[in-house]
Amino acid sequence: MELDCVCFTLIIDDIVFPDGTTCMAQLGGGGSQSLFGFQLVSGSKGLVGLAAGVGTDLPESCKDWLYRIKADTSGLILHSRQTPRAWQIFESDGRRTQVYRHLGDPCDELYEMLRPKVDDLPESYKHAKSYHIGIHPQHPPLSLLRTLRQAAHAQGGLLSVEPYTASDSLLTSPHLGQLLSACDIFSPNELEAESMVGRGSPQKNMMTLLDASPCDGAQTIVIRCGDKGAMAATRKGPSQDSSIGFMLPAVEDTQVVDVTGCGNAFCGGFLASFIGKTGKAGDLLESLAWGSTAASFMAEEKGVPKMGVLQLKVCSMLSYHGMR
């Protein structure tokens, strides 16, 4: 059965809030949160999968959450090592420090578990309609990205990519071109965009990224600006000189509890809305709205929202956008 979307990476998050309270053993790493956003928008009807390496210590609560959102878990590859796990420590000013627990500092073994090789994935994962994956902007796995993009295009889908960290230095034009040539949607946050292309407004950096993308590369750039909202621009056609963009404020009255994974949820929601669209300008704005709503719902819960909350919020989201 064809999967609508496959997301990558699983880390068990042990979250420490500024007041010292904790929320332990939460699904993290980006993949689960992206699946949340995708399923929220698809109304839990999407067929989704999570690709990651895990150990025998994967908490039952995490398995249960994946089961409840109807995720295919055959892409969870069992390793002899423990499941990647990290402290997520938040400060009152919003800063976050991630400290890996079982495997120490990032190493080859860790990356192998976070981002499995395509050859190791189930056959159904190799023919999914769309994919979403996080990358380091200075060290993108170009071969993997190209393989996933080709597989998605064969099914009429897309490859969505987001950085999971800022770049340590500005990217050269060739490096930036290579990265953007290997995906369809590229979605950094405003600080990540600035780290890649230099200081400037989010709108300027968004257009810089779109202009840097080859004609056969990423056609859509999304910049996430936290509580200020998000913006996106897409080419109207094959010409690099023709594009259209929108800015959408964040959802009002979001009661922020935990911002872990909000960007990932946004990306999953945006992708779910965007795939299968006609490419008209209104579709871009609609996809921003879905992504922002998914991020808002993620922010209002500690860890990934529970399935019962997910079902209720699907109805709320449809009502919010006047779609029901």
UniProtKB/TrEMBL annotation:
Enumerate the SUPFAM superfamilies for this protein: Ribokinase-like
Q: Which Pfam families match?
A: PfkB
Where is each Carbohydrate kinase PfkB domain found? 54-304
What the entry lists under PANTHER family is as follows: PROTEIN MAK32 (PTHR47098)
Q: Could you identify this protein by its name? A: Carbohydrate kinase PfkB domain-containing protein
